[in-house]
Design a protein that fits this description.
This protein is mainly alpha-helical. The chain has 5 helices and no strands.
């Protein structure tokens, strides 16, 4: 099942993931090993060919220490957490 997102959401995700890889001087192959997917899958995420599945969003969030957040990747599944109000 493919998930849908608006073009602006897709561009934001691509920029976050691409910027993360560039910032940390990581290749798509190296990142693929970190999150347990094929390099082709990372390429498809970066180019926008395929959206990130929710379970992969959790792995990416963890592997990037939240720099590429699960919310950025799947906002419908993982909405932003609002600070608790007292």
């Amino acid at each position: 099942m493919l998930l849908t997102m608006s073009s602006s959401e897709a561009i934001n995700v691509l920029m976050n993931l691409a910027k993360y890889l560039e910032k940390h001087n990581l290749t798509q192959n190296e990142f693929a090993l970190r999150v347990g997917v094929s390099p082709a899958m990372v390429s498809q995420w970066v180019t926008g060919y395929r959206p990130v599945a929710p379970k992969r969003a959790l792995l990416i969030d963890s592997a990037t220490d939240g720099e590429v957040s699960k919310h950025d990747l799947c906002p419908d599944v993982y909405p932003r957490e609002l600070p608790a109000s007292n």
